[in-house]
Amino acid sequence: MNKLSPIERELVAIGASIASNCIPCVTYHIAKARKLGLREELITEAIALADKVRQVPAQAVLEAVRQDIPETAAKGCGCSSGEEK
Q1: What is the C-alpha to C-alpha distance for residues 46 and 11, in angstroms, rounded to an integer?
Q2: Among 13, 23, 66, 77, whose CB has the most other CB atoms within 10 angstroms?
Q3: C-alpha span between 54 and 60 (Å, rounded)
């Protein structure tokens, strides 16, 4: 891993942290990137790209569910409201 610069490593870590939905990791790596002097513009770009990558499998899962169980996709599961269906 010594071939990547410290800034490149933090950009990768930010992307991985977002992909794994780890809030403490994202917070840590953004702070470390700033400490290394990474511009906010590049941090923001890394975050946006990581989010786009993260959304691809999430959208694929939703599409699969909609095709297999259309009535569930239309109604919602009530997960966020704590209701059992």
Answers
A1: 6
A2: 13
A3: 11
Structure confidence by residue, pLDDT tens digits, 34-56: 999 999 999 999 999 999 998 88
pLDDT of residue 58: 84
What is the pTM assigned to this prediction? Answer: 0.69
| Topology of the domain covering 6-80 | AhpD-like (1.20.1290)
- Residue 71's pLDDT band, with cuts at 50, 70 and 90, is low
CA distances from 61 to 9, 27, 53 (A): 30, 27, 14
For residue 85, with 0-12 CB atoms within 10 Å meaning exposed, 13-18 middle and 19 or more buried, which class applies? Answer: exposed
Cα 41 to its chain centre, rounded Å, is 18
